[in-house]
Amino acid sequence: MHCIGVDVSKQELVTFDGKVERVFPNDRGLPEFRRFVKRAEDAFIVFEPTSTYSRRLETFCRMQRILCCQLNPRIVPHLRQVGRGRSKTDSTDAELLYRYGIERGHGEASELSHDPLSEAIQARLACYRVAQKARVAYQGLHEALENDPATARTLLSELKREIVALKDKEQLYLVAAQRIVEEDERMGRRLDALLSIPGIGPITALTLLALFRKSPGATRSQIVALAGLDPIQFQSGTSVHGKTRISKRGNRELRKRLYQATLSAARYNPTVKALHRRL
Questions:
Q1: What CA–CA distance (Å, rounded) separates 236 from 93?
Q2: What is the pTM of this model?
Q3: Segment 202-225, tens digit of pLDDT
Q4: Suppose 121 and one of 9, 172, 210, 268 were both cysteines; which one would form an S-S bond, judging by CB atoms 3.0 to 4.6 Å apart?
Q5: Chain mean position to CA 191
């Protein structure tokens, strides 16, 4: 395989293939990068998923059925330290990704899966989170200004209207996500099953449903790792015994939803409540 390490930024892709460093624009369709990869025989790409910035590269790899190794962004700093603490630049990161691919990436490389239903749910939930974050910020601002006698009443009224509008948007995105699921009879039944669990609300249920669709063959331990809830031990000989903690190297949103659902279940779900008390 022809390994290509790719460091993704907002405007460009910096690549390293073991010989030459190249820079390509991170524009729609990645035409220049496409021509470069087409010339390489049996290529596979190693990169860090960076949400919005890497979306085009992910789409390109999925559509072209190119093997990829998506490296957790938390790993690269450790690779840099192993490489004698080299400076962080786009070119050095591309080289680090390439070297990881040569050493270990072949066994981890796979084609990116595409599930329209899961992606549609995640898109609506992302819009929901943005609207919710904006509403909370407006509510905090309203509470602060409300206690200031110098604040004009018209401004407070405008903020109240904005808060109500954002609440409506939150509900709109949530209902849209549920409707997308309900259009698929099988997924609709699964959503109902998740919602029947005490402590699981619509947001958590939709988040879990998207996860199960994206990773259909995942085991229990793999789901725990995907959420970043797997335990990490710190122990060396007889003198070093660090406190065991969760890795937090998985999906932050999934971990947040599961945590909130657990808090609710510890209060209202008799089985979980008994387990919580025992622990």
A1: 30
A2: 0.73
A3: 999 999 998 888 877 778 887 888
A4: 210
A5: 21
